[in-house]
């Protein structure tokens, strides 16, 4: 796993830097695939799907990601498969779980702020306001919704993974989270808020943050477990 991270982290980072570099070099102009998918979405937009995807897009930025991040932090503190006395519900364990949840939410807030700083730095314009189902101001890359939902999903997947005892459960858990992240990304393009490359940049940015940040964060959270080394 550590070896995979050492390979994937620079790959994701390189792809993100390359994408943002090209965007800056083009003065923010959309790619051909951006324009083509944007036109297709506008031509196939319907009131029903607009309503559905408006609700989907809300799940990617408001309550659900922070709930997922909090649960991920709490589960990391608890630890899967523990049978020792410290696995029992004790005041110390409750305090550790609460702290883990707070840290998980705080980490997601930090990721959201970093995405906002990067978005402001690059300054790429969004699609025309007339094409948006509701007006969203400010620059567009990386997509905040794509970044936040991907951060929450990756964190929750990593935390839930040890609790899933077989490949089927792991596949279902990861599959549901992937579908949610993709649905949120699609909703941003469908509703006219972002170019598809904005969404891809958000996913890459989330991957970079998680590949570099999750391992040390998880190690710190595990030290909150009762009986953990250095937490006597």
Automatic annotation (TrEMBL):
SUPFAM superfamilies: Acid phosphatase/Vanadium-dependent haloperoxidase. The chain crosses the membrane at residues 63-81, 93-115, 146-164, 171-191, 203-221. Residues 102-214 form the Phosphatidic acid phosphatase type 2/haloperoxidase domain. It comes from the Bacteria. InterPro entries: PAP2/HPO (IPR000326), PAP2/HPO_sf (IPR036938). Pfam families: PAP2. Keywords: Membrane, Transmembrane, Transmembrane helix. The keyword Cell inner membrane does not apply. The keyword Membrane applies. This is Phosphatase PAP2 family protein. It comes from Streptomyces alkaliterrae.
């Amino acid at each position: 796993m550590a070896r995979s991270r050492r390979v994937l982290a620079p790959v994701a980072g390189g792809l993100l830097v390359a994408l943002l570099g090209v965007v800056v070099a083009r003065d923010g102009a959309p790619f051909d695939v951006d324009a083509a998918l944007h036109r297709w979405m506008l031509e196939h937009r319907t009131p029903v799907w607009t309503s559905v995807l408006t609700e989907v897009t809300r799940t990617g930025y408001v309550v659900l990601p922070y709930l997922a991040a909090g649960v991920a932090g709490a589960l990391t503190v608890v630890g899967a498969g523990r049978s020792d006395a410290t696995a029992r519900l004790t005041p110390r364990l409750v305090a550790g779980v609460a702290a883990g949840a707070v840290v998980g939410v705080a980490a997601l807030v930090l990721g959201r702020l970093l995405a906002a700083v990067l978005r402001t730095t690059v300054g790429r314009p969004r699609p025309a306001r007339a094409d948006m189902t509701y007006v969203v101001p400010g620059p567009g890359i990386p997509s905040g919704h794509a970044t936040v939902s991907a951060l929450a999903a990756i964190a929750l997947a990593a935390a839930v993974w040890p609790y899933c005892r077989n490949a089927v459960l792991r596949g279902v858990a990861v599959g549901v989270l992937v579908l949610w992240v993709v649905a949120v990304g699609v909703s941003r393009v469908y509703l006219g808020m972002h170019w598809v490359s904005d969404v891809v940049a958000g996913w890459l940015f989330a991957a970079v943050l998680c590949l570099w940040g999750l391992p040390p964060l998880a190690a710190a959270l595990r030290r909150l477990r009762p009986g953990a080394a250095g937490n006597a």
